[in-house]
Design brief:
The protein is mainly α. The protein is built from 18 helices and no strands. The relative contact order is 0.21.
Amino acid sequence: MFDLPTGLSFLLLLCIVIVCLFEFINGFHDTANAVATVIYTNTLKPWHAVIWSGLWNFLGVLAGGVAVAMGIANLLPVDVLMEQGIAHNVAMVMAILVAAIAWNLGTWYFGIPCSSSHTLIGSILGVGIVFARLPENVTGIGVNWQKAIDIGMSLLISPLFGFSVAIMLMFILRTIIQNKEIFKEPNPEGTPPTWIRAILIATCTGVSFAHGSNDGQKGVGLMLIILMTFLPLQFALNPKFDALAASAAVNNIEQIVQKNAQKGSIAPAELSKAGEAIASLKQDISTFDKDNSKSKFAIRKRIQLLDKKMKVFLEFPGLISESADRKQIKDNLGQLKTYTDFAPYWIVVVIALSLGLGTMFGWKRIVVTIGEKIGKRHMTYAEGATAELVAASTIGLSTYYGLPVSTTQVLSSGVAGGMVASKGVKNLQAATIQNIALAWILTLPVTIALSGGLYLLFRAFI
C-alpha cells in the first residue's frame, strides 16, 4: 500500500497488528461493563449478550468521530519526534503498546476491572517523559501537559460522577416507580418481566455503543501516531488539504478579529497573541510544500495553535460580541481542523472490527467481578439499569467533548453507587473495592515506569 523499504514495511505492519491486538484486548477486558448486568439479571444468555454487545461496539466506533482519537494523538509532539531516527520512533510506539497490553492482560487475568484508557495514557506519558529527558532532546519537549491534564481530570472526575449520580438515580427510581419488582434480586430460574428486560437490553446497548464510540477512538489515535511516525508525508496533514481554501479561512478569521479590535472590544495583549498565530499560519500556508513532511507538520502545529488562541476569544465574554462573527470564526476553525483532525476510513473499520471481535472473547473474568464481587449479593434489576444508564450517558458526553473516559471506572462506580443507595456502604465487598481502587491508583505509575523502561530498552536494540 505504501512505498517503504522492506524492513520498515514489516515494522509498520507489526505495529498495526499490535494496535489491533490492544483494541481486541480492550474489547474483552471492557465487555463485562456492558453485559454483566444483562447476564446477572437473566435478561440475556451470555453468548447472546456478548454478540449483541460486540455488534454495538463495532457500530459505536464507526459513528464516534475522531475527537477522542485526536486527544490521544496530540498527547505526544509528533512533529518533534520526527527529528529523531525512525528506529527510535518505532521503539517509542512499541513501548507504548507492549506496556499497555501487559497491564491490561495482567488485570484481566486476576479479574480486576481496570481502565484501558488509564493504561494507554500512562504508557504514552511514560515514553514522553523519558523522551523529554534524553540528552539529544535539547528542546525538552516530550508530553503535551495541557492535554494530559484535561484527560487526567476526565479520568478522575468520571468515576466520582458515576458513583454520585447512580445513588441519586436510585433514590429517584424508588420515588417514582410503584412496581417494586424492579428492586428485587433476579430469580435464578427465570427471566425478568418483559418491561424490565427491555430497559436492561436498552441500557446494555447504550453502554456498548458508547464504549465503542469512546474506547475505539483510542485505537484510532494510536494508529494515527504510528502512521505519522512511519509515513509523515501521507498522514501529518489531511491529503485533501487545500492551501487556497485554508488561506481564505485564515483571512476571514483575521478580518473578524481586526474588525472587533477597531471597536475596542479586544485588548492589545489578546490581539497581539491572535495576530502572531494568524501571521505564522499564513506564512506556513504560503510556503507549503506537499512533498515536505516538515512543512506539513508546521501547518498542523499552527492550526492547532490558532484553534487554541481563538477559543479564548470565543469563550471570553465580550471579545467577539456579534453572534454572526462568532459563528463565522467557528465555521472557519472547523474547516481548518478538518486538515488536522482526520482518520482514513480504513483505520476506523479495522479498529471497529478489532474491538467488536474482542468483546466476544475472555469476558467472563470481569463479568464475575462486577456481577458477584462488588456487592455482597447479586445486583437487582434497578441497580443494573442504573449503573448502565449512568455509564452510557457519562461516556456519551465525554465522547461529545472529545475526552477519553474509562468505561470500566464509570460502570464499576455506578454499580457500587446503586448498591450503596439500596443498603448502604455495608452492601459492598471491601476486598473487591480495595482491589479496584488499588488498580486505579497503581495504573498510572506502573504503566509510566513500564513504558519508559521499555522505551530505553527498545532504543538500545532496534
